[in-house]
Amino acid sequence: MRLTCSRRPVMATLGQLVANSLWFAFDALDHQKTGAVPKSQLKVLTQNVGVLLKVERRVENCIAEYLSSQHLTFEQYLYFLTHEVLSEVDDGSTSYVGLKEHHDALDHTFWLLGRHTLLQRHYPVFSEDALFKLFRIFCLLADRSSERKELLQVSLNVGEVREVTRNLVTSLGREWDVRDFNQLATVISHFTFPVFITFLEGRYIQDTEPTALESAVDDVYDNFVQQILKRGKVYQRAWWTPIWVKREMEVRPWALIAPCYKLNAKSAALSVVLGQTHVPLTPAATVHNIPDEPGARQCRFTLCLESNKLVQLAATDHRSKSEWLRALDAAIHHSQEALPYHVIQSATRKLEHAEEEARETAERIRRDSQADIIENTQAELMAEKMARAEAEAAAREEAAARQAEEKRVLELQTLRLQLETLLEEETQAKRDEEIVRNLQARVLREEWERREELERLQEEQRKMLAEETKKRQEFERQQEEKDSQLREAEKMLRKLESERLRLDRDLRSAREKIVMSERGKELLEARMKVKERTPPVRTYSLRPVRKERGNIPKRSSSFNTQAARLFKFRPKNEENNENGSENSNGTVESN
Fold it and tell me: What is the 3-class SS of 499-558, one letter each residue?
């Protein structure tokens, strides 16, 4: 999938961002250089990508079901990886800020897989770390093209090589010679990564100190990959007191950052005094230039955030102030872009380069047409001279014939002017036709991109509909399970209720038995105590006879039954003795 060069917002996918670096890992697995790799090797690569992105399902098992062949080309594998693995973390509408961490991790993994073929050079100058950073820059700006059928090649455009080389040379503190670069670059048709590294090592970094070279590569890496638009010292006003503190800050397309390389008391105090070290930038943020005033700090400007919070800054000089203002304007303008900043700039440069080539081609055609006209005109002039010489010779012989020849020359000149006018009109018509053709191609390209976008949206809608159907079926199944569980619970509740009623009846019966036994026990104890206190001497009972006792309240049937059960086996004489004891006790008590 190619990057568009227009300025309208483009939703990038993670597959687009890592396609070039993935190609190097894919090419390292393609030992036969046939353009296809066995699925068994790609399964391991897919598993590593899934683990790196923390995908919970085993995505490597899906590759066996993808297509029927046992080998996959790069485009087929990229399509599978984009839709089956990378879609777990990228839904197609995520901005580059949310994808940058995954982009960095995947590029590093693909570099580890393919670096053994890229580190082999006769006279290496770049270190492995510097080579990795140049690899990231190369993959960010490179394009994929087919040299022959089914064989892809990742290479840099000459304009992008010129931009990267210019940044590297200026970071080394040297003067950039564009004429020298053009002379060298014209003999190279394709800048692949080995050719690009050999070109830099052989022409621009010879006799360079390793420390200076590492620093220059870091600057170029920060500019292109880390997207640091501006870095330097700037004064910031504290939020609670009118003091200005000098600190290092850097501008990226999504934030204004104060990098803190060491965590110490000073950095913590600065964070408290000046506020947060990461200020997010949105399209609603604005930058305002403050004119210099006598008695106030010079080179001031303010950054108004979306939350209406005001960050007051001051540059060290007016040149630095202009650079900070331009950098902040660019960062705010590109804060919500789905592509990296330099990818958009690269697309713009490629479009300008294509337009420049088209203009040069048209100019070359125009110059060739003019050369043909001049040649034809010179040939006509020579013919006229010869005709004039013959006419003059004939004029000496015949005056009348000379006049006729002069008239014929005038007619030829008039005809020549007419032909020149027609030729100019035809050339202008060709130029207009070429412009119309270019416009039609551009419109067709835009229509094709819109069609691809609509197809992608339709596919996403079909996937969402299938997911909703699965969720509804799962919900119905869970509802049926819950209904069956509810019926089982109601059945168990009725069973427990009947069990509870039975246990209540048993409990009441047991309580009645316990009460009756307690009463019998108390009666027996009372009789035993009476028997112990009564002396074994026979006394006359003062108790009146049965007829004189009057009505004695009857005992309950339960009491009589229990008492009868307790005294059922006693001899009759013991019962009489006990009655006698009771009568004597009753007499004493009445006395």
Answer: HHHHHHHHHHHHHHHHHHHHHHHHHHHHHHHHHHHCCCCCCCCCCCCHHHCCCCCCCCHH
Tokens of 398: 């015949």
Question: What whole-number distance in Å separates Cα of residue 42 and Cα of residue 49?
Answer: 10
- The answer to whether the beta carbons of residues 121 and 197 sit under 8 Å apart is yes
Q: Using 50, 70 and 90 to split pLDDT, how confident is the model at 147?
A: low
pTM (predicted TM-score): 0.58
d(CA 101, CA 53): 10
Report angle CA 314, 320, 325 to the nearest 5 degrees: 70
What is each CA distance from 407 to 161, 271, 392, 413, 417, in whole angstroms? 63, 95, 13, 10, 16
How many Cβ atoms from other residues are within 10 Å of residue 322's Cβ?
Answer: 14
Residues β-bridged to residue 257: 250, 278
According to DSSP H, which parts of 149-281 are helical? 158-171, 178-185, 193-203, 210-224, 265-274
Nearest to 142 by CA among 291, 351, 347, 427: 347
pLDDT tens, position by position, 28-53: 888 888 888 999 899 888 988 888 88
The residue whose two tokens read 């399964």 is 43
CA 140, CA 21: separation in Å to the nearest integer? 9
* Residue keyed to tokens 């897989």: 113
Rounded distance between C-alpha atoms, residue 15 and residue 410, angstroms: 71
Q: Name 145's bridge partners.
A: 153
